[in-house]
């Protein structure tokens, strides 16, 4: 198999929410092919429904981001699909926020560990394993989907503590990645508060609005942007 589009995107957690919307919007341009990873392709009805009209530009891959063997198998599957091509944009999007109201003194250690495993260890290992494919591409860009909840000095009070700590950790991962590999663009990006299962229905913006901004921000990146934290308006944020 091979892919003939100009750009290749690899997205984790592509079966719903922001990952699904990213996939939908990216497929609107014939320049893009998407390798859409999700835990259960057989149950990813909305994602699978996009395949027939994609003219071979959408490939759905199984991937649990917490399972190391799954990650390595997904790299092999991606390599088989891509032939000589690489991955221009690796989007570490999958994440969990299991206890929206946990605080420093109510958090459950096992839950915190699970959140850290999914939101930090998963993206770190995926990027390690997929690096050869990113290196082969033209754009060489890795996006760690983060959150303003992981920022210092952002006033979100005591809630979502495990999630916030994990996103702060993910931001440090971006910083470390960029320090080690200045030839690749690594950014953290907060998509904004959007109406998804995680964002809830009270979020101010439809997921399509935030994702439009995410895509515009990501495709506009230059090497000088590496190691920074952005919002979906393309503005650089303090850590
Ligand atoms: N929505 C917001 O307001 C908001 C704000 C700031 C940042 N974010 C960030 O944006 C990203 C996407 O959020 P969202 O709102 O789209 O969340 P969502 O609607 O809850 O979707 C989360 C996605 O992550 C996947 N996922 C979770 N654990 C996984 C695992 N172990 N392996 C593979 N996939 C896994 C889920 O797959 P399953 O269906 O299999 O569970 C689902 O596809 C996250 O990084 C989140 O932190 C969101």
From TrEMBL:
The keyword Oxidoreductase applies. InterPro entries: Fungal_SecMetab_SDRs, NAD(P)-bd_dom_sf, SDR_fam. GO terms for molecular function: oxidoreductase activity. GO terms for cellular component: cytoplasm. Pfam families: adh_short (PF00106). Keywords: NADP, Oxidoreductase. Belongs to the short-chain dehydrogenases/reductases (SDR) family. This is NAD-P-binding protein.
